[in-house]
Amino acid sequence: MSLEEAENSMSFRARNAMVTYWQKVVGIATGLSVIVGVAISVSHLAALVEDNKRASTTNRLQALQQIQSILREDDEIRSHARQFLRDSAPVIQPNVDALIRTAGTGEDFYLSPAMKDFAIVHHHYEQLGALVKLGYIDFPLVFEVIPFPDGYMHTVQPIRDALTLHWRGIGQRPLRGFGSNIDYLQACFEYSRAHPAAPPQCPDQTPLTH
Fold it and tell me: Which residues cross the membrane (predicted)?
């Protein structure tokens, strides 16, 4: 082998050694980047899970505080319902159209002293139904701790119908949706009672599987 060929061979081997060296360096750097990336991802995931846990706990505590407030009112609300059924409903129900005409409108009659107990009960369950419908309170919690007053609602339905029909006055356009959140809440109770083996839920949620 000539001197020139020997030099070329040594140069070729040196270049190969250098390429191999940088390939190893790049491989190590790439591996480190992947490790660092995975570590950062795991760290972010752990932080996200922890944040979700804290948010879930906060939401559950807020819901518990809300339901505790509603429970505190429940005895009083039931007292108003019993009083209305005992003292007012027997007089109002047979004469509700005439009483509305005298008051001026269904709204005026609803806000009158004679309907105070009715209005208190109506507002309570209308508000509770709205909170469930909008997802501010989980229905399973409501179902477990608050009894829905089916008997009361059935008895006062004719009065509610008259208020809906004559809300703006006798012969005027009805107020559609009066008490719709109560209807929604009642549907949730009825649906859950009809499926006792499944978790309580409202009929507009995911169909139950059997």
Answer: 25-49
Q: How far apart are CA 153 and CA 122, in angstroms?
A: 9
Task: Give Cα separations from 23 to 11, 26, 31, 33, 176 (angstroms).
Answer: 18, 5, 12, 15, 76
Query: pLDDT value at position 119?
Result: 98
* pLDDT of res. 210: 40
Separation CA 201–CA 52 (nearest Å): 24
The answer to whether 164 touches 171, Cβ cutoff 8 Å, is: no
- Token pair belonging to 59: 């939401």
- Cα(94)–Cα(89) distance, integer angstroms: 9
pTM, rounded to two decimals: 0.69
- Are 188 and 201 spatial neighbours (Cβ–Cβ below 8 Å)? yes
- Which DSSP category does 146 fall into? -
Single-letter code of the amino acid located at 53: K
| Kind plus residue range of the DSSP H or E element containing 31 | helix 3-83
